[in-house]
Design brief:
The longest helix has 11 residues. With 109 residues, the protein is of the alpha+beta class. It contains four helices and five strands. The relative contact order is 0.21. It folds into two domains: 48 residues, no CATH class; 56 residues, Orthogonal Bundle (434 Repressor (Amino-terminal Domain)).
Length: 109
């Protein structure tokens, strides 16, 4: 787990869990990234994943990471937002990770 933000005794940790879902934790609350809004937006725009991939100029590896809820670079998200004419909040959201609530006693979280 990599600590990416510090200050006043609090660190924001970031890493990949074994199940492939990305998580963020600060204090006792764990969050994970969700791209469900992206998939709903594609349906609304009647766009297929392969169309998004080609129009945005992103790799299939990036699309696969999105499908698995894994981290992708900001550049990938910016390209997607450009093609879909939207903001990042329209395609990404952070949700509480129910699986790791029991892990809230971990060191650093």
């Amino acid at each position: 787990m990599q600590k990416i933000c510090g200050g006043a005794g609090g660190f924001l940790e970031y890493g990949n869990r074994r199940d492939g879902a990305s998580d963020f934790c600060k204090g006792n609350g764990n969050m994970k990234v969700s791209y469900k809004k992206l998939w709903k937006l594609l349906i609304d725009k009647e766009m297929m994943k392969k169309d998004l991939q080609s129009q945005a100029g992103i790799s299939w590896t990036s699309v696969t990471k999105l499908l698995k809820g894994e981290n992708v670079g900001m550049e990938v998200l910016m390209k997607i937002c450009t093609v879909l004419d939207c903001n990042i909040g329209d395609i990404v959201e952070f949700v509480k990770d129910k699986d790791s609530e029991s892990d809230s006693g971990r060191e650093g979280c």
